[in-house]
Every structure is written in structure tokens, then in C-alpha cells.
């Protein structure tokens, strides 16, 4: 079974990278760890944790989305509701709340969800963000819980992957075919690094 290491990155969109950097790097404190682009396109990555990033494409004409409360039901085509970013301590949760309020961003009071305490806000692009502190002793990863009053039949099979649901691999990729072709991002290691230039001043 594949061992996943986290969300390598979530890819969002913005029409204003300057405001996006100010929010994610300067207000929230997430390092800007990679940036590439050309006229009309930027793609920047901010470090959430040692395994996780959030990335933004900047495209001309992108506008902030209309704000929708986190988890509020919708109809029709829809793919994304909100992103929840974990914090280590309760103090950090309230420090973030205070920072957001001081910067003029509306933020909710902390909500107790049983296994996490969360606050909710929006970034300058209208992206709904939740910040979550795990309640000590209530780790749903170690002890999964299902209390849905109308549970999905498939969920009742248990928390672990169920074998035999999908076809087995019959044609694995041969070793000599395992080649990664050049894609966006190769510039990060082939062109002058603007961060290094800044350090030379």
C-alpha cells in the first residue's frame, strides 16, 4: 500500500500575487519557498509544514471568489469547500485569531468540533480557511470514529482500505520507462535565484 506523506501542495488561483504573498507569508508566517513564472503567469509555493505547501497560480483576470461560509451546502457543479491548516498548540490558534483581527480580516470565535478546535476566515482571494488545533487525547487517526445517523453502506465496511474493489495491476511500468519529462518548475534549478541575489546586497 502506498504510504502518503501529506498534501505536497494545494494549488489555488489569484489575480493579485502581491496581496497573496502579504497574507500567506507576512501575516500567517509561511515561507515563500518557490516561485516561477513568465509574463502573464506566476506559480508560487508557501510552506505550511515540512511536508505540505499551498501554491498559487496568478493569472490575469482572476477575481476573488464570492465568499461562502465554510461547509454551507450548495447545489450544482462544485469541487472545493475550504482548507483546514493544523496548528500545534491552543495558544497558536488564538495568536492567529488575534493576528487576523489586527490585520482587519474577519475571523470567527473558536468552535469545538470534539477532536479539533477551529477558527474560520478568508484570504484576500476569498479562499475559505480553517485553522485547527487537535484536542489532546482525541486523535481520530489513531482511533477512527463513525457516528453518522445515516451512514454510507461503503463506510460501514470500516476505516481501512478494502481489498478486491479495483482491478489488480497487470502491466506495471517497466523500470526503463520510468522517465520524468521536463515540466514547469525546471527553471527553479536552471536560472539565477533572485533570493540569492537579495542576500548579496
UniProtKB/TrEMBL annotation:
Organism domain of life:
Bacteria
In residue numbers, the region (Disordered) covers 151-174
Q: InterPro entries this protein is in?
A: Extradiol_RC_dioxygenase (IPR052537), Glyas_Bleomycin-R_OHBP_Dase (IPR029068), Glyas_Fos-R_dOase_dom (IPR004360), VOC_core (IPR037523)
Q: What is this protein called?
A: Catechol 2,3-dioxygenase
- Quote the Pfam families the UniProt record gives: Glyoxalase
Q: Which CDD domains match?
A: VOC
Which taxonomic lineage does the organism of this UniProt entry have? Answer: Bacteria, Pseudomonadati, Thermodesulfobacteriota, Desulfobacteria, Desulfobacterales
Stretches assigned to coiled coil: none
Amino acid at each position: 500500500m502506498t504510504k502518503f506523506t501529506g498534501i505536497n501542495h494545494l494549488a489555488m488561483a489569484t489575480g493579485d500575487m502581491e496581496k497573496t504573498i502579504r497574507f500567506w507569508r507576512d501575516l500567517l508566517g509561511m515561507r515563500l519557498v518557490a516561485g516561477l513564472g513568465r509574463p502573464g503567469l506566476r506559480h508560487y509555493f508557501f510552506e505550511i509544514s515540512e511536508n505540505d505547501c499551498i501554491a498559487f497560480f496568478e493569472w490575469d483576470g482572476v477575481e476573488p471568489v464570492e465568499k461562502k461560509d465554510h461547509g454551507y451546502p450548495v447545489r450544482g457543479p462544485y469541487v472545493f469547500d475550504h482548507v483546514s491548516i493544523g496548528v500545534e498548540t491552543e495558544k497558536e490558534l488564538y495568536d492567529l485569531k488575534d493576528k487576523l483581527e489586527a490585520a482587519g480580516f474577519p475571523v470567527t470565535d473558536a468552535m469545538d468540533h470534539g477532536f479539533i478546535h477551529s477558527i474560520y476566515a478568508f484570504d484576500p482571494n476569498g479562499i475559505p480557511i480553517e485553522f485547527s488545533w487537535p484536542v489532546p487525547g482525541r486523535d481520530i487517526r489513531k482511533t477512527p470514529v463513525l457516528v453518522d445517523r445515516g451512514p454510507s453502506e461503503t463506510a460501514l465496511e470500516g476505516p481501512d482500505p478494502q481489498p478486491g474493489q479495483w482491478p489488480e495491476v497487470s502491466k506495471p511500468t517497466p523500470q526503463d520507462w520510468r522517465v520524468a519529462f521536463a515540466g514547469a518548475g525546471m527553471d527553479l534549478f536552471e536560472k539565477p535565484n533572485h533570493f540569492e541575489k537579495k542576500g548579496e546586497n
